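Retro notes
What went well: the complex prediction finally ran end to end.
Inputs used:
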Amino acid sequence: MMIRVKLIANYREALPPEAKNGVVELNVPAGTTVYDAISRFDIPLNDESVIVLNGLTVDMDTPLKEGDMVTAFSAIAGG
Amino acid sequence: MYGWHLRILRVNLTTRKVTTEDVDPKIARDYLGGRGWAIHYMYKEMDPSVDPLSPENMLIFATGPLTATPAPTGNRYMVVTKSPLTGALAHSNSGGEFPTWMKRTGFDMFIFEGKASEPVYVLVNEDQIEVKSAAHVWGKDTHETTDILKAETSTEARVACIGPAGENLALMAAIMNDKHRAAARSGVGAVMGSKNLKAVVAMGNKNPPLHDPEGMRSISVETSKNVGADVKKGSNMRIYGTSYVPQVTNTLGILPTRNFLQGTFEHVHNIDGDALKDNYLIRHTPCYRCPLSCGRLTEVPDGPYKGKGEGPEYETISSLGTGCGVSNLAALVKANYLCNEYGMDTITTGMTIAVAMEMYEKGYISEDVIGMPLKFGDHDAMIEMIKLMAHNKGFGKDLAMGSYRLAEKYGHPELAVTTRKQEFPGYDPRGSQGMGLLYATSNKGASHMEGDVAYEEVFGVPVKENPLTTEGKPELVKHFQDSFALIDSSGLCVFVAIRYVFDKNRMIWPETLAAMMNLTTGAGYTPEEVMKAADRVYTLERMFLIKAGSGPEWDVLPYRMLHEPLPDGPAKGMVAELDKMLPEFYEKRGWDEKGYPTKEKLMELGLPLN
């Protein structure tokens, strides 16, 4: 199934060249979780990162569905 | 005494009498400094019902004990006064260099009272204080004014001043320091303008001694290293400042778009941090002694929006940009430069134009009244509106009142997205419930700078909370309000200092900040004592609001947030659920069910009972 991963700001450096506007499409097997998808990329998977599924706060072991978007950005006090 | 000078400068602009006075060490300790000292003096000396633009209003510049110390981001000051925009309290924070230079004059706080008979500026060079004519800079923008006043005083001086917007009493007028830094919100620049006070110029070499200089140096080095991702080379703040945030809030569906008609913006890629970095960024520009360096020096090299200056940061992108549906980055950058030069808060400026755009599109305000079409996304019209607002001309007279009064005047108050008449910053509370409670109860009206729970709901600092739920948010908001009151009183910047108010288990426990305060002042605070002092500051501000007529009846959210569900994004279908949170919030704060601090709470905090 096709899903998308979006990496924001400095995390974009971890994206492959075919990414557009910070988003890359991936063909992943059924049962792939949020963790599985995001761990393909060289970004910190600890308290320094925020990872959301379709903009929503979810557990990292949530299984993905066709068309889902996983987004990651670094945790920084901003705004 | 260490850390604090325990000296206040008081300037009566009516009589031009300048006095200095000592601060009671117990008051200094109980109210921390900065924002805390300011509300203590305002509550004690001023009738909260005064007209904010009358000579009776006090205008206070206040540094904290950590201002001008080695503490990372020890470079802030607060401008505290009664707001002409909200009728509530204004406490606007700024960094740069001026606050450090102000502390070096030998005073912790400047109080300006009365009204000068003609434009003046005040020069404070340690104990040499002069009220001087500002006739030659009246009408000039903040950059010209800064250059002229430095040239005629000293290149070693630093300047805080107003531009045309403050002179013309626009209710979104800011006080700019070091040209590009703003004590922006709540119309503090209009209060300065109402006093005919064009500028304050500060210089000197008087710093109070530190209680434990070696300990302070050591903790400052250690905390600089340990602020995590924020200060690592290559982190978002260093590369982008806050301009990376539109992509974050757009992902969460809480990016104010077209006056909050939507929570996502289809052209966000045109105006985000990457677009700014790739096209106009020259370099980052830190405030004094800041390891984060979130300021951006930018330049539009040619074309109709040619210019050079600082910004935009996130709040400007979400107001003048997405708020107005504007996707032309060069025009947005230019609009930011103009706001800095005219001395205007970009949030209230942008969101007021956004309301006008919606009212124009719905036919509530005609092209004849405005003088031109004013559709969402029309960046040239937006820039023209900024000019009219700053100079109080044409339709700009209506815009200069802010969105609440504008929408009310033209018969549609339900379109103004404000609390206590102040415009929302860049987080839609329908998709960040804690922010809704914060906006509704903030002592300065809608603001992210009075307890930014978006740190947890959006940014995961120090932990990621689900922004769509209301459970636990009343306590979270209370803790963040107190933490920000503490940081604002200390003289630090919230971007870094927020990490000093949590322990390693990420619970509120300001051991690091209390340690910094103790090494600086020798006051011997426990973490409980500084949190209690912050609660004292917040509650006394609430008492001021109640007496000013901006009490619990204003703890509300605007119509759109309560009755118009978000039409798009992850929070689609949601409204702000304030009623689920407000009663518990009052209880957590020690206020009664109607929102008034209880007698027991006032006694616990050592506050006056009336």
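What we learned: Chain B has 26 helices and 17 strands.
What to try next: split runs per interface for comparison.
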